[in-house]
Amino acid sequence: MIDFYTSSSPNGLKVQIMLEETGLEYELHRVNLSEGDQKTPEYLKINPNGKIPAIVDRDGLGGDEVAIFESGAILLYLAEKSGEFLPVDANGRWQVISWLMFQMAGIGPSLAQAGYFLNRAPEPVPHAVERYVSETERLFGVVDRRLSEAEFIAGYYSIADIASFPWLRIHQRFGLDIADYPNVGRWLEAISVRPAVERSLAVP
Ligand SMILES: N[C@@H](CCC(=O)N[C@@H](CS)C(=O)NCC(=O)O)C(=O)O
To answer: What are the residue boundaries of the GST N-terminal domain, all occurrences included (predicted)?
Structure first.
């Protein structure tokens, strides 16, 4: 049994989709971010970084209970546990890991900053908006070019797609027109109709 700690957010949605896709047994625990649940001493034992998502696998791969944090690490862990969405051949696996790291180090942080400066900053900061929105556009362009030559980001459906989908689907939040990225649009539609993704999006 896996205890899954989450809240409504793209990073939480990645893990939700992976759990639904793999069919691993899990129990969802809601973390109230505005109440500061993620900074309590009990939660910091699970994720020392004080953020969602995190999991505790009561039957860890090493035999004992294990806590995992950082959505990319959780996706890799669940891929190893389930044997799904991460190829066993070395070249395929490293392709997936390259695109997963690109999501974790590029898409996630840049889109989060773009969203903050566009929608939540207490005062307008035009230079920050310009910096992060133009980087967001560039990153969408990278994925769009990749998807012009492959059906899915690393060739076939993998944890690279599961990591990227929750961030790219909210393109409107960054003022982007998805018509400018037709391959991303096609890919978003294909993923959004997967039953596991529909179930994940239906969780309030
Ligand atoms: N790199 C981390 C980012 C996690 C993250 O930023 N979580 C946000 C929600 S999307 C959070 O918990 N924010 C609450 C806080 O910072 O106190 C991951 O991918 O797991």
So the answer is: 1-86
